Task: structure prediction
Amino acid sequence: MNDSPSKSRGVFYGVGVGPGDPELMTMKAVRLVQQCDLVTYLSSDNGYSMARNIAATVLADSNNPGQQEQAIVMPMCESREVANSVYDEAARIIASHLDKGERVVFLCQGDPFLFGSFAYLYDRLADNYEVEIVPGISSINASAALCGKPLGLLAENIAIISGRRGSDDILQTLRQFDNVAIMKPGRRRAELLALIEAANRVDDCCYIEYAGHENQRIVQDIRTLDAQPGPYFSLFLVNRARNYGSTK
Amino acid sequence: MNDSPSKSRGVFYGVGVGPGDPELMTMKAVRLVQQCDLVTYLSSDNGYSMARNIAATVLADSNNPGQQEQAIVMPMCESREVANSVYDEAARIIASHLDKGERVVFLCQGDPFLFGSFAYLYDRLADNYEVEIVPGISSINASAALCGKPLGLLAENIAIISGRRGSDDILQTLRQFDNVAIMKPGRRRAELLALIEAANRVDDCCYIEYAGHENQRIVQDIRTLDAQPGPYFSLFLVNRARNYGSTK
Result:
């Protein structure tokens, strides 16, 4: 696809490492993480990276002595300007490795293209470099599995909506869709609980924090959930009550 | 959770094997498929099972001589009565193995709880047996990766809708949501193409058949897609055009 000079260039891989349980990494993710020349990931100011943490065992087993790591430090603020300048600088660093013919992995929690920060690096690099995206298990699928709640059957529909949308939008979605995942409820938890009640879907709903992590928390009956701000990595799963057709 | 007699019972695992590429199986899926006593899966009248096919190499490498297989033959018809009686009989067979303390895996293409037939067995067995669901990569995430189309960024929303819904419903969803996956377009492809055009989303849309399989087909410009019936394993991916905030 590229011009001839690009033939000696490396490949950039956006690799989903899944929601938390390291065993939910795909075999392809494991292979690429272990084989690549450079491993990159977002980290907080204090050096912690959730994605790096999920891949820690796989990296420790790499047996790839030349492998390097590069943390991309993302300050904890909501400024898109700050975020964009971090992505600009990260893209420059990754490009310099790709220009040397190296294979570079960016570790993405969950799935790279489902609310993943990888999209911002993809946007900066895909026009000029070969980029491959390796899908990962999202927290939505992991939460449905943990709660025992099927997301879709037959002709049902499913909505995935940010808890940051307007209230009318969230209420309409809760009324319109059989199954709804509300992502990023965080600080708006109290308001979302009220909207779920207004849509008459309290009985359909469960709440999950940190699916697959050590501090995982599942609340099957959201009547027992405090109306307090919660962590970023949490979601409400609203699931249609249904008759499966069992003759039991 | 169960009474004491259940302590000697086996465990039933609904295992997602991903959309097609065997390397997109998770490490957990591989481990359970290789360790379990009985492997079950749906197959067609002629004995073909897409899920079994995805797991074929992993099964061949099992090194588990006592392992058995049980195909669950699902006739190609749309009768829910026929399907339900097949699931009833399959649940009886699986229960008889669980009663002997065996570990039973049911192989599910994609994710077990995203339009997966596993839900019907779960419904019949979860009240009386320990059941664990192992999420898998869905065709939606795989298709987004293959097409280079992020499904969700920041506060965007996503709808997953069956191509079997009413036209008004599909049109409303296409107008309301930033990103839409239309599953199971199959025989309604011509009508869906007209709806995508009516919603003014032709430029946002790509089409994927058999993601990750040998006969995979990606159509980035749906203007070039024949308005003919297509296979069951296909989907339209409608993706919002967006400004990522790149300063490039």
